[in-house]
Amino acid sequence: MKRLFLVGCLLAVSFATAQAAAAPRFGVAEDVTKYAQDGGASLFAQLRELGMTENRMVVRWNPNDPTTIQDKAFLDRSIPVAQRVGIRIVFSVYATEAGGVSADPDARIALFAGYLQTLARTYPSVSTFIVGNEPNEAYFWQPQLGPDGAQLSAALYERLLAASYDALKAVSGSITVVGAGPSGDANDISSISPVRFVKALGDAYRASGRAAPLMDQLAFHVYPRANTDGPSKPRDWPNVGPADLDRLKQAVWDAFAGTSQPTFHEGPAAPGGLTLMVDEFGWQAAVDPAHAAAYDGTENLPTVSEDEQAQISSSLIAALDCDPAVSDAMAFHLVDEADLNRFQSGLLRTDGTQRPAFAAMRTAIAAAGACASPHLWSHATGVIGAGATFPSGTVQAKQAAFGLSATALEDAQGKAGIFRLRRGTERVASAELSRALAAVSAVRSPVRSVSKLVKAGWTPRFELRGRLKPGWYVYAIRLQAAMNPSRAQTLISVPFRVGRPKTR
């Protein structure tokens, strides 16, 4: 027994060590390397100094010139340089115009898939392709919604991603196909929020009858709602920020669980599951007055200080390192854009000098792989954040209005009811009342009921009207997740009495 105990302890230590050592790959989302006169050699050297090993480059597809590789001369120059110094190139491929696919879907999906094959055969050292970019945003994909408000972009993007997956795997089974994650912030008016977009993507996939996966990884851009928000500040559902990656994982599980498309592993990471490529993160920093001459224009949003940017970078790297689902993390940018109306999130200023974030990132990356407490995720089975407030105490027999309130951290459909008990000590199973509220049980029915949408973060009141006969009752409310009706739960009050007991 002692020997078995010691072996178990050793295995546990080995397992924990293996988990702690599984650091993401770090890199940058940066095109300056592609256009540099030296093929990016000097910038790649700075990436290696940071401990980074990959560079995401954008390669546009022009639907009006669909077979020509855009920026080919620059790619021909920079990719061999990256290969020589050990920098892995990731291609992010999307159309030059927002309506590039929707203008003629059948023809253009085929042309886009063929373009990916041309890229893969021309640059065999590139083995990872991100298909599209923020397809839930009108800036990159149109139309998002139809005149009647129906979601359109996810269904068409599903077709593009499926065709792209098949085309790239036909070139080489070792190519990694990455789904372009939705933007973390959308208003569901001109753009589609990430949780709802992922659901629509899953609905389209299920409706297609496809038996093959859509993607090996999911890309996602990690930004705060406001540039001055820290990485630990949560976003309101159905949007997703750096503190809400579990919400994205849940959305993927709701959309694809039980299909041929893998979802994120639950618990420690293991081979075969979907992984998360954070292919952009960044906070815009104020320009140091000593370097202001290198910039032009006017800043378009509140910035953080350079020291705050450094602290944010360190804490975010540590958080991503502790998430077993995260396989890659890329800063956007390596080098600031000179126009202050664009992005100044670089680790290097426009004049090439290092910001404090450079050293902070280098230190954080060097420490990665040593997370003592990995953040392990499991999918929810009920409604996230579900709660209810019930009235208490004896009710007068003449009362004709009854009410309770409910809340949740995601949209849920609620049905509240009042059930009569045979006696005050009767205990009714939650499952029985849940079936009754779902209208699938004839054993017991509510004497009063009402349905209402519970919007995420809200606490609506459910009013049940009509007098009740004297006796014992309970309130119950069944909440059902809007994004996945199979996730439901029922909350029950303590028994309450209507009317006073008779006295002799």
Protein structure class: alpha/beta
- Using the 3D structure, state the CATH architecture of the largest domain: Alpha-Beta Barrel
- Here the CATH topology of the largest domain equals TIM Barrel
The proportion of residues forming helix, as a percent range, comes to: 25-40%
Indicate the low-confidence ranges by residue numbers: 1-21
Q: What string, H for helix and E for strand, traces the elements in order?
A: HEHHEHEHEHEHEHEHEHEEEHEEEEE
CATH class of the largest domain: Alpha Beta
Helix tally? Answer: 11
Radius of gyration of CA atoms, rounded to a whole number: 27 Å
> In the CATH hierarchy, what is the superfamily of the largest domain?
Glycosidases
Strand proportion: 15-25%
How many β strands by DSSP? 16
Main β-sheet description: 8 strands, parallel, barrel
| Whole-number count of domains | 2
Q: Shape from CA axes?
A: elongated
Describe the structure concisely.
By secondary structure, the protein is α/β, with parallel strands linked by helices. It has helices spanning about 1-20, 30-35, 40-50, 70-85, 105-120, 155-170, 195-210, 245-255, 305-320, 355-365, 430-435; strands at about 25-30, 55-60, 90-95, 130, 175-180, 215-220, 275-280, 325-330, 385-390, 400-405, 410-420, 450-455, 460-465, 470-480, 490, 495-500.
